[in-house]
Design goal:
13 strands; globular; 6-stranded mixed sheet; alpha/beta; about 325 residues; about 30% strand; 10 helices; 4-stranded antiparallel sheet
Length: about 325
């Protein structure tokens, strides 16, 4: 099997990344030697397939940015290995870079160039680019084509980032917080564009703080916590073990002792929270218990990615 036909576009195996935190001077050599380390990534495995949108989530400090930087070839892992399109992204950079698009968390443009000039300049550096004007139009910037990049809004600059990243027709697209600063309409347009690339076979690695984006768009999700993969799978697989929730303001005319919700758990103060594995029967029991008495702020919902994410984040804070 050649590297051009493998199913895994990105393979991360046993990867660790350590940073030096303290050094001391060796009086014999005159050099500073490391004496303290921080391990941001503590041994992880990941696979991103061609034609798949894979979301890598985590709180600040979870290790996801360090992981993405290694995949982009901006550094070498302290241990383990990374393959992008069958090549080491550092040693095999010439085999990888022209086939990869990257949207960083922040980037800069020459302030004197217009959007069109920036797009055409970037176009000239690529081996198999899409037309520059078409890339600009695909992110809705055709009306700003003659505006200098320094005068663009934050959301417009973000859209230009994405236009440049997809101009090279990438086989792998890394999106690091790509929709930050975008209005809802622009966000929907960008995701429609990205979904089209995925359907054409592009492998997309996404980091985002908008959990609803990952929940709606990702084929698979990994949640990092303290440098490790805490949970990985489809959204359905990740939330399968989390309970559904029913909540409402505690009514004064009803006794909670009369509420029979089987194995569900009830937490009550001024409000009531019920966690259950069987949402529909439990909700029916709650409504039968309430009868004609209105339950204010009644809310019933299945387990969500946000619920699991916050539970994992709470684990970190309590450790």
């Amino acid at each position: 099997m050649t590297t051009d036909t493998i199913d895994d576009a990105i393979t991360v195996t046993g990867v660790r990344r350590r940073y030096v935190t303290r050094t001391r001077l060796n009086l014999l050599t005159g050099r500073r030697e490391p004496t303290g380390w921080f391990e941001a990534v503590r041994g992880i495995d990941l696979r991103v397939r061609r034609g798949e949108l894979f979301a890598l989530l985590g709180t600040n400090g979870a290790g996801k940015t360090s992981t993405v930087e290694l995949i982009e070839g901006l550094g070498r892992p302290s241990d383990g290995s990374i393959q992008v399109l069958g090549h080491d992204p550092v040693a095999g950079r010439r085999h990888v870079r022209h086939r990869t698009g990257v949207v960083l968390q922040s980037s800069g443009f020459p302030p004197g160039l217009t959007v069109r000039e920036m797009a055409r300049l970037w176009h000239s550096t690529l081996s198999n680019p899409a037309p520059a004007d078409a890339a600009v139009a695909s992110v809705g910037l055709e009306a700003q084509a003659d505006v200098e990049t320094a005068k663009l809004s934050g959301g417009e600059r973000r859209r230009l980032d994405i236009a440049l990243a997809i101009m090279g027709r990438p086989e792998v697209l890394v999106l690091d917080e790509p929709t930050t600063g975008l209005d809802p309409e622009s966000r929907r347009a960008i995701w429609s564009l990205v979904q089209g690339l995925v359907e054409q076979g592009t492998a997309v690695l996404l980091t985002t703080h908008y959990l609803e984006e990952a929940e709606q768009l990702a084929d698979r999700v990994a949640i990092m916590n303290a440098g490790l993969i805490a949970r990985e799978g489809t959204v359905a697989e990740i939330v399968a073990d989390a309970p559904a929730r029913i909540s409402f303001d505690r009514p004064s005319g009803l006794a909670l002792a009369d509420l029979n919700v089987g194995a569900a758990t009830i937490t009550a103060s001024d409000s009531v929270l019920i966690e259950t594995r069987t949402l529909q029967p439990t909700l029916r029991a709650v409504l039968d218990w309430a009868g004609d008495i209105p339950l204010r702020r009644l809310d019933a919902r299945s387990a969500s990615l946000e619920q699991v994410f916050l539970a994992i984040a709470d684990t970190k804070e309590q450790s």
